[in-house]
Amino acid sequence: MAAIRPRSTVSAWQPSVPGIAEVFHARFTDHAYPTHVHDTWALMILDGGRVDFALDRERHGVGLRNSVILLPPGVAHDGRTVTEAGFRKRVLYLDTSVLPEGLTGAAVDAPLLLDPALRERVHGLHVALGAPELPAGAVERLEAESRLAFVRERLHRWLAGRAPTAYGAPGARLAVRLRELLDARVTEGIGLEEASVELGHVHPTHLIRSFKAAYGLPPHAYLTGRRVELARRLLLAGMRPAEAATAAGFYDQAHLTRHFGRHVGTSPARFARSGPV
Questions:
Q1: Could you list the residue ranges that cross the membrane (predicted)?
Q2: How far is CA 124 from CA 23, 130, 150, 175, in A?
Q3: What residues does 53 pair with on adjacent strands?
Q4: What integer pLDDT is reported at residue 2 of this predicted model?
Q5: In angstroms, rounded to a whole number, what is the distance separating the alpha carbons of residues 62 and 50?
Q6: Given a cut of 70, is residue 274 above it in pLDDT?
């Protein structure tokens, strides 16, 4: 008889702690993230299994051990299960008040931090952010802020001690300008022809190739990922899935659900109902 895989589960919430945009806990048995970007830092620890991911088109694999994974904002990455047992992870999405974007290059060079003390600090912060005896959404803020300060200190020690590394494709000014256009119009979007005209009547295919060469994914995939990120924030703030879909730039709830499942591993409705476990 074939072994029964454990059910995939997701829990996410937005704590009242400055600097932490989202707490995300998940167990995935068979999930592959498409290439995407975040506008926050993603600080991840594994509680079981193995995961394989690419950051800036370089593949990495990691198991339990004492690793901490740090993915910088604005850099394309993916992720996928490696074994039939899948993996369990806990993620903190941190804004740039915790870690400045100037450390992006160092994080791209070394996203795997083999540091048992850092892992223990991240674990302790998760416990403080989701203590089971507290009502959903409540946090002992002083404890959580204190633990975040120690996590930040350790991360700075890892990244700031490295030689300064500039991140970004050289000579990619056209791609940068297109990305700025997309970032400015996440919800309303922009057509390829309009973008081509606005950027100096650049040929559309050249525009797409330039963007993909610089960022590792085509413009439409980048924009979809940004819309999913926006929908996540709206859902955690209490907005209903149908309203969050249109507010984030999707046609309707079904359109959001299709992309949300690929990027987050659950439906918008389940994501909105989840919380500390």
A1: none
A2: 13, 10, 10, 40
A3: 60
A4: 46
A5: 6
A6: yes
